[in-house]
Amino acid sequence: MKTAIVTxxxxxxxxxxxxxxxxxxxxxxxxxxxxxxxxxIDINTTEFYDKIRKGGALPKTSQPALGKFIETxxxxxxxxxxxxxxxxxxxxxxxxxxxxxxxxxxxDIDVRTFDTEISCMVQGFYVLKAAEMAREGATxxxxxxxxxxMKQTMRAYFMVDNxxxxxxxxxxxxxxxxxxSVLQVKPILHFENKVIVPFExxxxxxxxxxxxxxxxxxxxxxxxIKATIIHANNENEAIAWKNELQATMPNVEFxxxxxxxxxxxxxxxxxxxxxxxxxx
Length: 280
Prior knowledge:
The protein is α/β, with parallel strands linked by helices and about 280 residues long. It has helices at about 15-20, 45-55, 65-75, 95-105, 120-135, 140-150, 165-170, 175-180, 205-220, 235-250, 260-265, and strands at about 5-10, 25, 30, 35-40, 60, 80-85, 110-115, 155-160, 190, 195-200, 225-230, 250-260, 270-280. Strand 6 (about 80-85), helix 4 and strand 7 form a beta-alpha-beta unit. The protein is globular and about 55 Å long. The two termini are about 25 Å apart.
């Protein structure tokens, strides 16, 4: 059985890697003023943050049109027997629901969906594993079983400079619980039950990053790890953090990724994240 792998743009897998592993991408869009841009196609991350810095209303985001998924699956049906469509958390976007609906409307191909319950390059970890297995001829059932296994050790934590974006975008649960009156509070956030919730309150950015690092260190003492540092237009800080972590965690394989336009809309510039899972 020949299986295709589909994901959405919020996995932020570079195009050259998607092409190399034959990963098919359906983009979400960001709306800035009267203009709509398909992320990773019409607008890149640098252009997005440049536009946002100029001010104006908070951008809006939109999931792919149902027709985009139908078109993608119908095209793949000419060459493949099955599709595994891997998407950002269903708790923050209707993208997965659109993929499921489209899959039911397309004939001649078996469409399976997978809810990563997360986003960004941590979502990308699932996509890359699925693509590697599909290339080796693994069945859809075997691929999905491996993705479920990965989910058992998948972790991701992030901090933002300004919670207003998440609050106004309706993507943060428990907003009132974490703010209080201390302006320097930098809550660490994570996904729980498919939605973004506060994990812990920390007083400064430096302490928040140290707390996240300590959690990675604890897991790295138990097993080998694949990790990604995710930044919102602050690559130099991400590189410095990677160098610092690599010096003390030799059994962790690090990559650097980014919060692109859609996720960046909700987190804001300057955000930092760290995600990882057990590398068998």
